[in-house]
Design brief:
Blueprint lengths: L7 E2 L18 E2 L6 H14 L7 H14 L6 H12 L12 H12 L6 H27 L3 H4 L12 H21 L3 H28 L5 H29 L5 H5 L1 H20 L11 H9 L1 H10 L7 H6 L3 H11 L3 H24 L3 H7 L1 H19 L2 H14 L4 H17 L2 H6 L5 H22 L7 H18 L6 H9 L5 H53 L11 H4 L4 H19 L17 H16 L1
Antiparallel strand pairs: 1-2
Helix pairs in contact: 1-16, 2-3, 3-16, 4-28, 5-8, 5-9, 5-11, 5-12, 5-13, 5-19, 7-9, 7-25, 8-9, 8-12, 8-13, 9-24, 9-25, 11-12, 11-20, 15-16, 17-18, 18-24, 18-25, 19-20, 19-25, 20-23, 22-23, 22-25, 24-25
Length: 638
Amino acid sequence: MPSSGDYQTRETPPIDEKESFEGRESYVELRPSDSPSHTSARDFNAKLENPLSRLSHKQLLAHAAEFARTHELSEHTETIQKGALIAQNPAAFETLPELTEEDRRVLRREYTHKWDQPKTLYYLVILCSLAAAVGGMDEAVINGANLFFPAQFGIEPRPGRGATREQWLIGLVNSAPSLCCGILGCWLTDPLNRLLGRRGTIFVAGIFSFVTCIWQGLTNSWPHLLVARFFLGLGLGPKSATVPVYSAECAPPLIRGALVMMFQTWTAFGIMFGYVMNFAFRNIPDPVGVRGLNWRLMLGSAGIPALILVAQVYFCPESPRWYMMKGHYMQAFRSLRRLRHTDLQAARDLYYIHVLLEAEREVNKRAPNRFLELFTVPRNRRATLASSILMFMQQFCGVNAIAYYSSNIFVQGGFSQTAALLASFGFGAINFVFAGPAVWTIDTFGRRNLLLISFPLMAVTLLMTGFAFWIPESTPAHVAVIALGIYLFAAAYSPGEGPVPFTYAAEAFPLYVRDIGMSLAVALTWFFNFVITLTVPALLGSWTPQGVFAWFATWNIFGFVATLLFVPETKALSLEELDRVFSVPTSTHAAYQLRATGLYFQKHVLRQKVGKMPPLYEREGAIGKKSYKRASVTAEAA
C-alpha cells in the first residue's frame, strides 16, 4: 500500500493573500527533473502564467496608468488601475483598499453566482456553436442518403460478398469532408484567424459550408458528389477549430468548460435535426427530370444552420484578444464590456490580456517555430499528447461509425428503411438530450472523471450491441436489443467523450501556441474521422457487425487506460494557471495515477483501510477555491 513516504514532495510554504505564485512548483515529484530543457520550459511558461506577480503595488498602479494613457483609455484610468490590482492576485480582492464595497460585491458574485453572465455572452456561445450543427447535420444526412444515392450512382454493395469496391467508394464519398479538414481545412485556421479575426473566420467558413451543402444536392455522379463533399471540408475545418477557442477566450474561467462544450452540444443537435430531415424527406417523389430528390434535399438541408450563422455572427462581439493583437484597445474594451457586467470586470480582463500578449510577444522572439514548440517544449508536449489522445478516441470510440452508418446498420439488423431512419433519429435525440448533463458537471465533476466513466460504459454497450446480432432475427428481441445497445451507447458517449475533447483542446495549450495547437488537435480528429468513415462499410462487410462493435469496444478500453495515465484534469483553472498542471512530468503523472488506482481498488473493492496519498497538484484551483470560500463567508455574514 503506498504511503506518503513513497513520494518526495517539493515543499511550498502557505500562500497568503498578497503572495506571488511566481517560480513555484506545485506538484508531487517522484524524480527530480532539472534538465536544461525542463528549466527552459518552466521559464517560458512562467512568463505567461502571471507577469504582474513581479511588480510592486506602486509599480503596478503606474504601469496601469501609463497603459490607459497610451491606448486612448485615459477616461477609464482609475478603473483600469483597480482591474490591474485584481488581475495581479484575483484571490486578494477583499483586502484591496482601492476597491469599494460595490466592487467587492460584484467580484464576490462571480463565485457565488457563476451563471449570472450578460446575455451577450450566452448569445455568442450559442450562436457560434450553431456552426457545429453543420458538421452534425452532415453526419446525419449522409447517413440517410446512404440508403438512396449508391443505387442511383451504381455503387450499391451486394450483400454477402465481404468488403467490396462499392463499399470502399461509399466510405470514400462519406469521408471526403473529413479528409479535407485533416489535410487542408484545419490548417487554414491560423492564417484566417490572424487576418480576419474569429468572427471573420466563422463567417467565411459558414459561406463555404452553405454553398457546398447546396452543391452536394446538385451532383449527378459519385465522383461529382465526392468533389463537392471534399470542398465542404474547407468550411467545416476552420470553424471547428475557431469556435471553441473563440468561446474559451470570451468565457469566464468558472463556466468556461460548460460554454465551450456547447460546440459539442450543438453538434449533437445537428445530428438529431439531420435525422429529422432524413425522415421528413424519405418519401419525397421525384419530379419530371430529377432523380433522387429525397437524398438531395437531405444533403442540402445541412446548409440551413450555416445560413443562420452567416446572417447573425457579426452581431456578436469580436474576440477582445484579436482586437488587442491588432492594436485596437478601445474596441477590445467595448467588446469586453458587452461580455462582462461591469467596467471593472472588463478593465481587469483587458489589462490582463494586454500583459499576457506582451509576455507572449517576448516569448515568440525566442520561439520562432510555434509548430515545433508543440513537441519540443515539455509543457506543450504534454498538452499535445493529452489533446491528441482525446481527439483520437473521439473517433475510435465508435460514435461516428454509428452517426454515419446507423441506417445501414439497422437495415442490416432487419429494420425496414423507414424504421431504420426512425431508429437513427432516436440515436440522435438521445445524443442531444444526454449532452445536457455535461453542461452542469464538466466544471464541477471535471473533464477527466467524465471520461473515466464514459469509456467503460461505451465498451460494455458496444459489446451488447454486437452480440445482439447473434439473436435470431425471427425474435422481437433481435431488433430491440440492437436499438437499445446503440441508445445506451449514445447516453454514455454524450456527457463524456462527446463534449470533453474540444473543450480540453481549446484550453490546454498556452496562449502563444493556442491557435496552432488547436489546429493540430482538430486536424487529428477530422483525419481519424476520415479513417473511420472510409473503412466502416468495408469492415461491416468483412467482419460483420459483431466484429466491428467488438473492435470499437476494445478501443474504448484503451481510451480508459490512456486517459488515466496521460490526461491531467483542467477544470476550474484559468487558461494561464493550467501551465502549472502541465508542468508535471508525464512519468510522474502516470505513476501517481497507477498508485491512486491501486489505492482505490483496495479501498472500494477489497474494503481495506488505506492511507491517503499526497495531492498531485497541491494548489490546483487554489485561487478560485479560496476566493469562493471567502466570498461565500462574506455573503453569509452580510
